[in-house]
Amino acid sequence: MNDYANETIHPDLKQNIQRIREIADNSSDLLVNEFLLSGLPAALLCCEGMLATSIITELILHPITRIQLPNPTAESVFHHIQTRMLLSVDRSEAKNYRDLFRFLNSGFGVLILHGASSALVFGVQGYDKRAVMEPSGESNIMGARDGLIEVVRINMSLLRRRMKTPFLKMELFPLGDKSQTDICLCYMHDRVPKKLVQEIKNRLNRTELESILSTGYLQPFLENRRGNLFDTASTTQRPDVLCAKLLEGRVGILIDGCPFALVVPKLFSESFQTMDDYCFRPCYTAFIRWLKYLAFLITLLLPALYVAVALHHPELLNRTLLLILAESEENAPVSLTAEAIGVLLVYEIIREAGLRLPKAVGGSVSLVAGLIVGDAAVSSGLISTPMLTVTAIAVISGFILPDLNQPITLLRLALILAGGLWGLFGISLVGAAVLFNICAGESFGYPAMAPIAPFRKKSMRDILTRVSFRKMQSGHFTVEEYHE
Amino acid sequence: MNRISSGQLTVALLLSNAFMLMCLSRPIGMESMAGAVLAFVLQAILCIPMLLLYRDGFSLPAYCDQKHFLIPILLILYFIIRGGISFLLLWNGSENLSLPFAQPLITAGMIGLVCLYTASLGLKTFARASTVVFGFLVFSLGILLLGAWTRIDFRLLYPSQDITVFRSTLDILSMGDTLPALFVLLSFTNGKKPAPTLRFLVLSLILWEIILFLCITVLGNLLPTAEYPFFLLTSVSQPLSTQRADAFYLIVFVLLCVIRLTLLTVLSAHLLGMLFPKLRFRSVLSLAGMIGAATVLGVLGYTGGLYCILGIVLFACLLPLIFLMQLKKHPEWKEETTS
After folding, report:
1. For residue A156, what are the domain limits?
2. Of A233-247, A259-273, A465-479, where does mean pLDDT reach its minimum?
3. 20 to 30 A from B83, CA-CA: which of A326, B241, B300, B320?
4. Of A234, A256, A255, which is closest to residue A246 (Cα–Cα)?
5. Number of domains in chain A
């Protein structure tokens, strides 16, 4: 049954239908409508629930059943349909069963005819889909409110609405042996480095995945090194963000069935940028940028520094602070390191519970759990108030950078452990290793730490500060400048 | 080995030099500032044959491809011994840092482990990380200046009776051991060679002069008793009255140490790779060699000196000079040793 991939379509209608049923193993959603087309036996195949009945009836069935040709043959009928009738704007031809099933299961109407060794396909998709709505993960104040959805073609249209230039190229192709998922490669062909596109295509072609159900399936194939803590391929739910990235010469990958787009290459500095940055006044944006850099350091280092200083370097604290800490930690039953790790682990458990529970209860459960557990732990003396305060500040700071949540969570724990065991020396060592890890990050020859390392002075206008569009409009920055 | 930019070369060598400056334990006086100028002028002169050689298109990998083993082996030995001395400086210096454990061997072991990882990522990663660490260094210098500013006393700038300019020149020259590393790294640097070399020497001189000036004018009478003047300077120069900033220098010190040891490990591992392409665990072997060298040198009580100057003269000046003369004598060699 699996050897149908390159099998050409059988010209005999009965055998053809029989083979199709055989391949589909009489699947209940396969609909076969047999009829006479200009006197020749024909059949219109479709997948139940994947197309709009009214559209297929009006655009396909009505017109083709009226065709009456003198001395009709399969060839002449197909030729007539292809040259004289529009039927659907999205039309193609399937030569083998692999293509036929891909079109069929993508919501196309498939017309097969006795004597024809190919099938005509018409795009009449009409499956249920989520409406275009504001993305839940990348909220902003001033930017657009629409977000990508699960249907790749809608996502393509969201991009096209913003970029009417013919230089925006979108290449659609199937990937995944079993899922045959539509993947759309988008790029500005006047901006993108040609080698980047070719390399991405080569890598995607080399994948041997059975299915592609989310961005995570493809992401490892687009990242160069194993062992990187930080992503070198980013994801976005926002078409405006995706357009901005494409204009910088990046490549976007849309996956059918997934409301996220992959963007390659990703720079570490992008984690600190949002669409709002380009809507607010430059001076305020610069302030927010620096606040984010500070938040990154706080979320990563604050609990570890607290543990390290309190345990190993109390001389670094001023007297008042030292007394407060000593008093609060006096009755704590566990060590400061264990306390910090415990609090963070409990927070992660509550966060995970809040995420996995149904939305209606998830938020309230995490809120109540946090309040009750936190209050009870402090009042019973299990956890000191400063520790809880420090952890809360660190966690809240992390919310500013949702993009970096995963590596931050792991690194925070590692740094606390290093700080608890070896003080500031341990934190410095882990910090050095992390710095090298980030610097080693590279995607298709684009260093993740650019434009800081390698340093590009010109790019500092959007890193250290954010200059106004009067200045940014010139120069046409593309990521190719960072290639090493 | 991947190629690096001229800016990255400058920064990497500067950081390696800065670590030596932090570990400075020689007597300091006003003469040291003049000694530093002389030492860096001498280094600049010593670099001339090397730069002339590279102007003719010399390439160390091409030279090694011709099965010439002696120079790479000597360089590997030099880097391993310098790595060993760096470990020794770290052991001694760590006594001045507030570390949570007394055993210097643990300090060295942990730094060695981190360097094993950082060296495994290659020269390109090292060069990128150097750029970021350079930012830290500049920032820490800013904090140091902020703290020291009010304590500077120009009256303390007077000639010392115990220190001579000649002795200071030799001391500083023996600590500026990065020229052999420069000789190797120039083979892997894009662009023109003289500019980054000159930039590195000028920036190093500025750094030395700033720190020496601060040590003399801030520490004053404390200076003769200071085993490690830089650490004493950081303890004295606190920018905030209610909060000590020593921790920041500890972080910078560790970062500089990692950078220096990674540089030496990467270079010796790469030279090992040129000689024995099938040899595995080259970074591990290099680091093990450095720790071994540190143990032996520690037992002998040696932390650098005149032999370092010999190393600098040999690798930065004599060898390139010999190469240049040979190339003049045998023009057919040029094809073999140039890329």
Report:
1. 152-266
2. A465-479
3. B320
4. A234
5. 3
Do residues A299 and A394 touch, judged by C-beta distance below 8 A? yes
Residue A341 domain flag: yes
pLDDT per residue as tens digits for the range B196-251: 999 999 999 999 999 999 999 998 888 888 888 888 888 888 877 777 777 788 88
Please say if the pLDDT value at position A217 is more than 60: yes
pLDDT digits (tens, 9 = 90+) for B12-57: 999 999 998 988 887 888 889 999 999 999 999 999 999 998 888 8
CA distance B182 to B9: 8
Instruction: Count the neighbouring beta carbons within 10 Å of the beta carbon of residue A128.
Output: 6
Shared-domain flag, residues A321 and A435: yes
- Classified as helix, coil or strand, A450 is coil
Q: What is the dihedral of CA B136, B139, B140, B141, to 10 degrees?
A: 120
Note whether A97 and A5 are within 8 A (CB).
yes
A224 in the same domain as A302: no
3-state secondary structure of B24: coil
What is the reported pLDDT for B103? 72
Nearest to B128 among A422, A425, A439 (CB): A439
Question: A287 and A247, same structural domain?
Answer: no
**For chain B, which residues make up each domain, given as ranges?**
6-329
Does one domain contain both A300 and A377?
A: yes
A222 domain-assigned:
yes
Q: What single letter denotes the amino acid at residue A187?
A: Y
Whether the pLDDT of residue A309 is over 80: the answer is yes
Beta bridge partners of A187: A169
Same domain? A307 vs A435: yes
Q: Is residue A451 part of a domain?
A: no
Q: Going by DSSP bridges, is the β-strand pair A261-264/A251-255 parallel, antiparallel, or unpaired?
A: antiparallel
Is there a contact between B5 and A318 if contact means CB atoms under 8 Å apart? no
Note whether A288 and A277 are within 8 A (CB): yes
Please calculate the CA angle A156-A160-A163 and round it to the nearest 5 degrees. Answer: 140
Count of alpha carbons within 13 angstroms of residue B312, beta-carbon side: 25
Q: How far apart are CA B338 and CA B53, in angstroms?
A: 10
Q: Rounded distance, CA A230 to CA B321, Å?
A: 47
Q: Are residues A211 and A324 in the same domain?
A: no
Q: Are residues A391 and A297 in the same domain?
A: yes
Residue contacts between A and B (CB atoms, under 8 Å): 100
Q: Are A184 and A212 in contact (CB under 8 A)?
A: no
Q: State the pTM of this model.
A: 0.89
Closest-CA residue of chain B to A420: B100
Say how far apart CA A198 and CA A194 lie, in whole Å. 6
- Residues with Cβ within 8 Å of A406's Cβ and at least 6 positions away in sequence, in order, are none
- Which among B2, B19, B128, B134 is the top mutation candidate for probing chain A, defined by the most A β-carbons within 10 Å of its own β-carbon? B128
Residue A56 lies in a domain: yes
Tokens describing residue B284: 């591990």
Q: Is B250 on the interface with A (CB under 8 A)?
A: yes
Q: Return the sign of the alpha-carbon dihedral for residues A83, A87, A91, A93.
A: negative
In this prediction, residue B162 has a pLDDT band, given cuts at 50, 70 and 90, of confident
Q: DSSP secondary-structure letter at B332?
A: T
Please give the order of strands across the beta sheet that includes A251-255.
A168-175, A181-188, A251-255, A261-264, A234-236
Residues A243 and A289 in one domain: no
B75 vs B270: CA distance, rounded Å: 11
